């Protein structure tokens, strides 16, 4: 039955807009028999601006495309080497709130980072996951028809330079970090499987189908 089942899709490296369009299409057409899904993807370089985002957080001209998103939050950067996990979850069916899902996503990342001996934490005043005072994972969600879209972006081996020309997530002087700064041999494949394992465990899914 779909209520305790989830489908995992590995999309690899894809343009942001094509994945966003597909995510919205899935949500529009899903019903109570549709499976929850996790989409694992990396994006070509792009800045995305949340639906209430301000252009003032882009600090200088850039050749990297800036595109509007309907997720929450301000501006962030996506690029190869950043593991993105989009969570297409029927919250009503799972009987969890948006705040509970955010907490589960943060705990998913914190538990994943512990495998690399990285001590991480969340912040209630600025959602996401941090190592000391540096941000390693950003979160942004939208809820439609009681279902979630978008998800988390965890910096694994991504080039952090583009973050220098924005206020990441709307916070001036926010420093970013990545797993590679702590484990030079980290692979995004390993991170991907750890994220799925931790998330599905925290969400109590008992049937997991990889596609």
TrEMBL record:
Its EC number is 2.3.1.181. GO terms for molecular function: lipoyl(octanoyl) transferase activity. It comes from the Bacteria. CDD domains: LipB. Keywords: Acyltransferase, Cytoplasm, Transferase. It is found in: Cytoplasm. Its main location: cytoplasm. The keyword Ligase does not apply. Pfam families: LplA-B_cat (PF21948). Residues 32-207 form the BPL/LPL catalytic domain. It catalyses: octanoyl-[ACP] + L-lysyl-[protein] = N(6)-octanoyl-L-lysyl-[protein] + holo-[ACP] + H(+). One of its GO terms (cellular component) is cytoplasm. One of its GO terms (biological process) is protein lipoylation. Substrate binds at residues 71-78, 138-140, 151-153. Pathway: Protein modification; protein lipoylation via endogenous pathway; protein N(6)-(lipoyl)lysine from octanoyl-[acyl-carrier-protein]: step 1/2. The active site is at residue 169. It is an enzyme of class 2 (transferase). The record marks 135 as: Lowers pKa of active site Cys. Catalyzes the transfer of endogenously produced octanoic acid from octanoyl-acyl-carrier-protein onto the lipoyl domains of lipoate-dependent enzymes. Lipoyl-ACP can also act as a substrate although octanoyl-ACP is likely to be the physiological substrate. HAMAP family: LipB. Belongs to the LipB family. In the reaction, the free carboxyl group of octanoic acid is attached via an amide linkage to the epsilon-amino group of a specific lysine residue of lipoyl domains of lipoate-dependent enzymes. This is Octanoyltransferase. The lineage of its organism: Bacteria, Pseudomonadati, Pseudomonadota, Gammaproteobacteria, Enterobacterales. The gene is lipB.
């Amino acid at each position: 039955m779909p209520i305790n089942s989830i489908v995992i899709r590995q999309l690899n490296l894809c343009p942001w807009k094509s994945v966003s369009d597909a995510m919205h299409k899935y949500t529009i057409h899903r019903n109570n028999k549709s499976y929850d899904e996790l989409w694992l993807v990396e994006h070509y370089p792009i800045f995305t601006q949340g639906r209430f985002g301000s252009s003032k957080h882009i600090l200088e001209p850039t050749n990297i495309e800036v595109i509007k998103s309907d997720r929450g939050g301000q501006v962030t950067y996506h690029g190869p080497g950043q593991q993105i996990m989009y969570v297409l979850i029927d919250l009503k069916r799972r009987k969890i709130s948006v705040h509970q899902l955010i907490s589960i996503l943060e705990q998913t990342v914190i538990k994943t980072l512990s495998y690399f001996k990285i001590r991480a934490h969340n912040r209630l005043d600025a959602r996401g996951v941090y190592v000391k005072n540096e941000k390693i994972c950003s979160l942004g969600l939208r809820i439609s028809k009681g279902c979630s879209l978008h998800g988390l972006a965890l910096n694994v081996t991504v080039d952090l330079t583009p973050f220098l020309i924005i206020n990441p997530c709307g916070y001036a002087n926010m420093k970013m970090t990545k797993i590679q700064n702590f484990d030079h041999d980290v692979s995004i494949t390993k991170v991907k499987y750890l994220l799925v394992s931790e998330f599905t465990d925290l969400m109590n899914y008992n049937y997991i189908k990889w596609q």
